[in-house]
């Protein structure tokens, strides 16, 4: 029997559509790309599980699109929030916990000499770009097709993730004056980056990249690509910005940049550093950060930036990650999923490709390698939509987009992995029947 959203989910969604455009507060939450709305409305999260408003239980691989590296309602994080909430949630003044979180980030991320908090990853990227433009005195940003860097105007130029899922690479409402200063190039193609910087390098303020792309699916860089990117960027007199909103603290305790051996001039951070509450940050070289107001003329502010409660949750999350170091176990569980899903798909003659880095991976419904946005778009949307529905029917919650990742959290155990593989087998069997 095909999966049907429960009656209570439907009722809540109907209420939502009357007061929220499309019934969702992010298009990435919509189910339009995987068989139509309504989406499932969740009531609670517990460890590696969701429970929806109808009482159905799901193994969660969404992880809130990445930040829940410890799973839902981790006891240490929850207790830290409870212990602090009576002292207030927002002060609008400097606070010890934001300073402690800043110290923790600077100590654990190579090349992060100073940091400034924001409320979201979108704001972090937007601010880092503004800072690069202030420091260099240049207007142009070079980014890469299919990489999603938040929803600020300039970043919605050939963006991935939700923008791709709903069938629009660019957004209405973005003026030409913004778009003309953003150049979007194919990822993993060093020749076209070199050609572009040779032509207009003196106008480029920064090159912005995810060191490991996460929003056209997981796409790692080719060998030597990031090092060459940095060399070419610096040769042009521009700054290199790594968007590590997804990747920081996901693959080890620190940045993906340090794992890959290429340190940028600036970082944009988010997701995990908020411990499940809203948080973002940008930072990097000391000399560049001196341009930020009140020291310099690059203005950025935010009433909620570095708020005590998000800082407490972020600190508690990083404490657990440093103390328990769950990264190898998470990667091993993700590897078990990768290897077995490939075998099951082959058994039922379903061509797929899996890109995995550590505890995050993407299943592409195609047989060719995926190394950029063009190859990622070859993944069959119809098959993915059907697979998503079949897995949901069997109690496995995946992101409702073929361009997103599966995230294994520290809360997952071999028991959840085995249940997931059983669901995969049944789902691929159904797919093979046409």
UniProtKB/TrEMBL annotation:
Its cofactor is pyridoxal 5'-phosphate. Its EC number is 5.4.3.8. It catalyses: (S)-4-amino-5-oxopentanoate = 5-aminolevulinate. GO terms for biological process: protoporphyrinogen IX biosynthetic process. Its main location: cytoplasm. The modification N6-(pyridoxal phosphate)lysine is found at residue 271. This is Glutamate-1-semialdehyde 2,1-aminomutase. Homodimer. It comes from Sulfobacillus thermosulfidooxidans (strain DSM 9293 / VKM B-1269 / AT-1). The gene is hemL. Belongs to the class-III pyridoxal-phosphate-dependent aminotransferase family. HemL subfamily.
